[in-house]
From TrEMBL:
One of its GO terms (cellular component) is cell surface. Keywords: Glycoprotein, Signal. This is OTOAN protein. One of its GO terms (biological process) is cell-matrix adhesion. It comes from Mystacornis crossleyi.
Length: 737
């Protein structure tokens, strides 16, 4: 019996070790999954995606399947393998609907998007209607997570299938394959329709589409539509029988009634038929244009249109009369115009003013003062009506409020604006509450970052704290230190650490004195909140782990120990070392310059001195931001660069030398910038700032709006003088024409 038991234990350990190694080697896992026959593949997919069992029985061997599944879906490399093998085998072995469900789970749970243009060609182009609709719906949900080139490729895939369903016997050059239903299926991808295709859409189909219940919701999300396409769609909608100037036109569907202007979504941002427009129509348009700040570009044109509509809307009327109907165009009003407003007008228009964003501080001060001069006594109701304008309320006014009303502000609908208040305003609220004698109940209701403004002396005076009430609060280290010590007298360690923020209050002395089992069982809470810990705390955790269980120490913690301990990272420890360090970020561990160099050398060793493909990019995470320039140039394949571009955009402090190598790799990947498409230019994003002025001028001439849009979002990589110069010349030329 003893021999059998020993053999059984060895076999169980071997199977666990084999599975663990497979998870650390996603390329090998891909190879093994590709070799499965259809029956084996079906079984594997069933256990992965549909089994609710906590344990998996293999004969007499029982595996913790819950933990294994969690590890699988947490690994970018394994997720990529599941995505690729699903494309390769699933549609042959399982029903199309099941495969779409699997793709959905893989793509939604992973932080990495595996949809690249070259992969789109592997998507099935013969699908039953339900499977195609479900897959299209998934791609619409992932729109913002995909690159511009991928969106173009996905549009091409959807168009191919939609065209196939169109009755080609009726096709001629003057008709379009685009139906109301295909517009709905395309969703946000409709912005990729060619202009000439839109102009051929049947008026009956356009009328049917705009009558759909979800048409408005869809048109509200076309953030990257161009003015030309929007105006073409508006023209077809207008020609289909709807009079867009008639504000009394009511569009009815079921038991609901909508003004037709509301049905146009973001298309209203490009309405250009202003000749002889009535003031009522201008006000209706302005009301709808409050959402135009969601557009990805073309804001200059939108602002110009709002200015023109503002002039029309105010014809023969005073600013006091029209303020509430001007929507967010009021942001364009000058300080002198705002000063001329009556308190009554501001009070009447507050429901509109509190929705507007983009105010200048001086505008907020003027409008707040006007509103408060009408109200006389400030109450919770009045503050809740002000929205973002609450930041213009003076500290003295806040301090003069009834404490009970202030408590309601903290508990009510305005906490989202509390963090925007100045430190003086926040302290005004807290000091009034502290002096009221009822601060204890109020402190418990303070949420988020505002709680960090509560002084230690105020905390000391209160009682009744518990760990659960701290879960929605952000703490300073000093607050966490006090509260952890206070609550540890009556609470278990797991209850305190699971709050998250209280880990800031764990001292090295507490870490060193922890029982081994308690430390190991609760280490996950430290690891989950690594970003909240100081380098000193991380160092203490590393020494504690090394002392109690050096054989199982998470490899990334070795970076917190002296450099020589990195020698323990080799072989099977390389993958977990890279994976965790890539997620946590080297900056969180704050290594010295010498130790950082040693760590990067170890990273290169673990990669076998090259970044071969997208699997290596997945593994590196944000470690890629720290790789030396020479390594990027000589050791990164073009295939890896295609996957790495998204990660490089997230890097905060790339050196000039690193940027030079990234530019070299981009030109190697995409060719001369003279031949780039609009999608390529968008995907390159902030790195266009690395191009020469001559190269930028060519792109600015071809894609002025793309260059302007990119220049506005640049921050982390560079704000190159050449880029700004190219943008200025492009805008000047556009204005001149």
């Amino acid at each position: 019996f003893h021999v059998y038991y020993t053999y059984f234990s060895i076999l169980q350990m071997s199977i666990k070790s084999y599975l663990k190694n497979l998870l650390y080697q996603p390329r090998q896992l891909l190879s093994e999954l590709q070799q499965l026959d259809q029956q084996q593949f079906q079984t594997a997919m069933k256990h992965l995606f549909h089994s609710k069992k906590e344990h998996l029985e293999l004969g007499n061997i029982i595996l913790n399947w819950d933990k294994t599944r969690e590890r699988i879906f947490r690994s970018p490399g394994v997720n990529r393998t599941l995505f690729l093998v699903t494309l390769d085998k699933c549609f042959l072995a399982l029903s199309a609907l099941d495969c779409v469900d699997i793709l959905s789970q893989v793509l939604r749970t992973s932080a990495v998007n595996y949809l690249q243009p070259d992969v789109i060609g592997s998507l099935p182009n013969l699908l039953l209607e339900d499977a195609f609709r479900n897959l299209s719906s998934l791609f619409k949900d992932l729109y913002d997570r995909t690159s511009a080139s991928t969106r173009r490729a996905l549009y091409g895939w959807m168009r191919q299938i939609l065209q196939r369903s169109y009755n080609m016997s009726e096709f001629n050059e003057s008709t379009s394959w685009v139906s109301a239903e295909s517009l709905w299926i395309l969703g946000r991808y409709m912005v990729h329709l060619p202009l000439e295709e839109i102009l051929k859409i049947s008026l009956n189909e356009m009328r049917l589409f705009i009558s759909y219940d979800n048409a408005t919701k869809q048109l509200d999300t076309v953030y990257d539509i161009t003015p030309e396409l929007a105006q073409a769609l508006l023209a077809r909608i207008n020609s289909s029988g709807f009079d867009m100037r008639n504000t009394s036109t009511i569009y009815r569907q079921g038991c609901f009634a909508f003004s037709f202007m509301a049905a146009l979504g973001l298309l209203v941002c490009f309405y250009d038929d202003l000749e002889q427009m009535e003031a009522a129509v201008a006000r209706a348009l302005l009301h709808q244009m409050i959402k135009c700040n969601q557009l990805r570009g073309f804001q200059a044109q939108v602002h110009e249109l709002k200015s023109q509509l503002l002039n029309i809307a105010m014809q023969n009327q005073t600013l006091n009369d029209t303020l509430g109907s001007l929507s967010d165009a009021v942001v364009g009003l000058t300080s002198s115009q705002l000063e001329s407003l009556s308190p009554e007008a501001v009070h009447s228009a507050i429901a509109t003013l509190n929705q507007v964003s983009g105010w200048a501080k001086s505008q907020v001060m003027i409008l707040s003062s006007k509103y408060l001069s009408y109200e006389k006594v400030l109450s919770f109701y009045h503050v809740s009506q002000m929205g973002a304008l609450v930041t213009g309320v003076g500290t003295r006014s806040l301090h003069s409020m009834n404490p009970r009303e202030l408590s309601q502000i903290i508990r009510g609908t305005t906490p989202q604006y509390l963090s925007d208040l100045s430190p003086a305003q926040q302290q005004g609220i807290l000091r009034k509450l502290a002096a009221s004698g009822d601060f204890s109940s109020s402190v418990k209701d303070i949420q988020g970052a505002f709680f960090k403004e509560v002084s230690l002396s105020s905390l000391w005076k209160q009682t009744g704290y518990n760990s659960s009430m701290l879960k929605e609060k952000e703490l300073r280290s000093s607050q966490a230190l006090y509260l952890y010590e206070l609550l540890s007298k009556e609470n278990h360690t797991v209850d305190l650490l699971s709050t998250g923020q209280l880990v800031k209050g764990v001292t090295c002395q507490l870490i060193e004195s922890m029982d081994t089992d308690i430390f190991l069982n609760n280490f996950k809470f430290f690891e989950m909140n690594l970003h909240l810990l100081s380098p000193y705390q991380v160092n203490c955790l590393a020494w504690k782990f090394w002392k109690v269980s050096n054989a199982s120490i998470p490899p990334f913690l070795l970076l917190a120990l002296p450099s020589e301990y990195l020698e323990y990272v080799r072989g099977p420890l390389c993958v977990p070392f890279l994976e965790r360090l890539g997620k946590a970020g080297m900056d969180l561990l704050n290594p010295s310059h010498h130790k950082r160099d040693a760590a990067l050398q170890k990273v290169q060793e673990c990669l076998n001195s090259s970044i071969a493909d997208e699997y290596d990019v997945d593994l590196l995470g944000n470690l890629i931001c720290h790789l030396p320039p020479a390594f990027l140039r000589g050791r990164m394949s073009p295939k890896a660069m295609a996957a790495a571009l998204r990660q490089f955009k997230l890097c905060q402090e790339l050196s000039h030398e690193q940027k030079t190598e990234i530019k070299y790799k981009l030109l190697q990947l995409y060719g001369s910038s003279n031949n780039w498409t609009a999608e390529t230019t968008l995907d390159v994003g902030p790195f266009i700032a690395l191009l020469s002025k001559e190269e930028l001028n060519v792109l600015a001439e071809k894609f002025p709006d793309v260059i302007l849009q990119t220049a506005k979002t640049i921050g982390a990589v560079s704000s190159a003088q050449e880029l700004l110069s190219a943008v200025f010349e492009s805008v000047s030329n556009g204005t001149g024409s």
